[in-house]
Design goal:
Number of strands: 15
Largest sheet: 11 strands, antiparallel
Structural class: alpha+beta
Low-confidence stretches: 292-298, 350-366
Membrane topology: Peripheral membrane protein
Distance between the termini: 66 Å
Organism: Calyptomena viridis
Strand content: 15-25%
Oligomer: single chain
Pathway: Lipid metabolism; glycerolipid metabolism
CATH topology of the largest domain: Tumour Suppressor Smad4
Helix content: 25-40%
EC number: 2.7.1.107, 2.7.1.138, 2.7.1.94
Number of domains: 2
Radius of gyration: 27 Å
Keywords: ATP-binding, Kinase, Lipid metabolism, Membrane, Mitochondrion, Mitochondrion inner membrane, Nucleotide-binding, Transferase
Mean pLDDT: 78
Shape: flat
Number of helices: 14
Order of helices and strands: HHEHHEHEHHEHHEEEHHEHEEHEEEEEH
C-alpha cells in the first residue's frame, strides 16, 4: 500500500489525469444505466397500454405513419428513434409505417398514405415539421386536418416540444415522454400560418416568421462555437460592425379583428328519414321567397409603414390558451433606435409593442400583406431560411391537432382559469 501511495505521489500528473478519466467514465456509464432504466420503464408502460386495449384478432390494428428525418440532430435522429421511440410504438399495439424524409418527390406517396392512416407522427425537428406541412396540397385535404399528429423531438431545434411536453434536460426522457404522450391520446388545437409570395407556393408555419437583425445574428451563432457560452453574445456583437442602425423598411396592411367562429362538431348528425327530407323540400318550394341578403361591404385594409430592426409574426401556439374566444397572432416590432450595446445585451429577446390581429369575417381567416422595400436579408420561417420578398400572411386557426402530454394540457386549462 505504501508503494502504491508513493508511486501516485511521484507521478501525480498521471495520477490526476487517470482519476479524472476514471471519474468521467464512471459518470458516463451511470448515465447510460439511467437511460436504460428510463427506456425499460417506458416500454413497460407502453406494453401495459397495449394489453389494456384487448384488440380482437379480427379487428385491424390502428395505423400510425411516422415521418422520420434521419439527418436531424447531425445524423443521430435515426438511431435516437430506433432506440427510444420505436420500441414504445410497437409495444403499444400500433401498426407502424416509417417514411424517411431524405429524398425528393415524396408528395405523391404522402397523399396516398393519408388515406390509410389513423394518426401521423413527425420524428425530427422544426425543419421536419415544416417539410411535412409543405407537401403540395397536403393541408388542403380536409381529412388531414382531422388526423391527430404526434411530434417526437429529435432535432436540434424543437419549438413545438416546449408547448406539448414538459421540459427535460435528459434527451432520452424527453423522447420517451413525447412518445408516451401520443399513446395517451390527449390533443390540443394549434394554429398555422400560411405565408405566400407573389408567384411561389405557400409556406406553412406553426411558430411564425422572423425578419431582421436578431434573426440574422442568431443564424451565425454556431460559427462561434469555440467561445462556449459567449457564442450568442459574440454573434450579436460582430453583427453590429455593419452599418448601424440596421433598418428594415416595410409596409404592413391588415384587417381588423372579428369574433371567433364556433367549432365544428366532431360527429356529423345522422341523415333524417326520406319523408322528412321530402317535407322540407316541398315546404321550401311553396313558401314565399326570402329577401336577398344585403351584400357585405369588404373591410378596408389598414396600412402601417415602419422602419424596424426586427419584425416577427407569430402564432399563439407558444402561449397556448385552450379557453380563448378569439383567434389572433402577434406582430412584434422592434424600434430602429436601439443602440449597439442594448442590441448585444438583449441578444435575441425582442421587447416591443404588440399588435393583435384577429380573424377576418369576410375571408374566415386573417390576412396581412407584408412588403419589404429594397432591403436585404432573409426570412426565418420556423427556423428555416427563405428569401425575403413581399408576402401575404394568413392565419389558419385551429388547423391541426397535436398530441400533448396530459400534464401540459392540465396546466394550460389551470392557467386559463386563473
Amino acid at each position: 500500500m505504501a508503494k502504491v501511495l508513493a508511486a501516485l505521489r511521484n507521478h501525480w500528473k498521471k495520477s490526476t489525469f487517470g482519476a479524472c478519466l476514471l471519474g468521467w467514465g464512471g459518470h458516463w456509464l451511470y448515465g447510460k444505466h439511467c437511460d436504460n432504466l428510463l427506456r425499460r420503464a417506458a416500454c413497460q408502460e407502453a406494453q401495459a397500454f397495449g394489453n389494456q386495449l384487448m384488440i380482437p384478432a379480427t379487428m385491424p390494428l390502428k395505423k400510425a405513419t411516422v415521418f422520420l428525418n434521419p439527418a436531424a440532430c447531425k445524423g443521430k435522429a435515426g438511431n435516437l428513434f430506433e432506440k427510444n421511440a420505436a420500441p414504445i410504438l410497437h409495444l403499444s399495439g400500433l401498426d407502424v409505417t416509417v417514411v424517411k424524409t431524405d429524398y425528393e418527390g415524396q408528395a405523391k406517396k404522402l397523399l396516398e398514405l393519408m388515406e390509410n392512416t389513423d394518426l401521423i407522427i413527425i420524428a425530427g425537428g422544426d425543419g421536419t415539421v415544416q417539410e411535412v406541412l409543405q407537401e403540395p396540397g397536403l393541408l388542403r385535404i380536409a381529412a388531414f386536418s382531422k388526423i391527430p399528429i404526434g411530434f417526437i423531438p429529435l432535432g436540434k431545434t424543437c419549438t413545438l416540444s416546449h408547448t406539448l411536453y414538459p421540459e427535460s434536460t435528459n434527451k432520452v426522457q424527453h423522447i420517451t415522454n413525447a412518445t408516451l404522450a401520443i399513446l395517451k391520446g390527449e390533443t390540443v388545437p394549434l394554429d398555422v400560418l400560411q405565408i405566400k409570395g407573389e408567384k411561389e407556393q405557400p409556406v406553412f408555419a406553426v411558430s411564425g416568421l422572423r425578419w431582421g437583425s436578431y434573426r440574422d445574428a442568431g443564424v451565425k451563432v454556431s460559427k462561434y462555437w469555440y467561445l462556449g457560452p459567449l457564442k450568442t453574445k459574440a454573434a450579436h456583437f460582430f453583427s453590429t460592425f455593419k452599418e448601424w442602425p440596421q433598418k428594415h423598411q416595410a409596409a404592413l396592411m391588415y384587417l381588423g379583428p372579428t369574433e371567433r367562429p364556433p367549432e365544428e362538431p366532431e360527429e356529423k348528425p345522422s341523415r333524417p328519414p326520406l319523408y322528412v327530407r321530402l317535407y322540407r323540400r316541398l315546404r321550401s318550394y311553396w313558401s314565399s321567397p326570402k329577401e336577398l341578403p344585403q351584400e357585405v361591404t369588404p373591410e378596408d385594409w389598414e396600412e402601417l409603414k415602419l422602419s424596424t430592426v426586427e419584425l416577427s409574426i407569430a402564432t399563439r401556439n407558444r402561449q397556448l390558451d385552450l379557453t380563448r374566444t378569439e383567434d389572433f397572432m402577434d406582430i412584434c416590432i422592434e424600434a430602429d433606435t436601439i443602440s449597439k450595446g442594448e442590441f448585444v445585451y438583449r441578444g435575441g429577446s425582442t421587447k416591443s409593442f404588440e399588435l393583435l390581429f384577429k380573424q377576418s369575417s369576410e375571408k374566415q381567416a386573417l390576412l396581412i400583406k407584408y412588403c419589404p422595400e429594397g432591403t436585404e436579408g432573409s426570412f426565418g420561417i420556423d427556423n428555416e431560411e427563405y428569401e425575403a420578398m413581399p408576402v401575404e400572411v394568413k392565419l389558419l386557426p385551429r388547423k391541426l391537432r397535436f398530441f400533448c402530454d396530459p400534464r401540459m394540457r392540465e396546466q394550460m386549462l389551470h392557467a386559463a382559469v386563473q
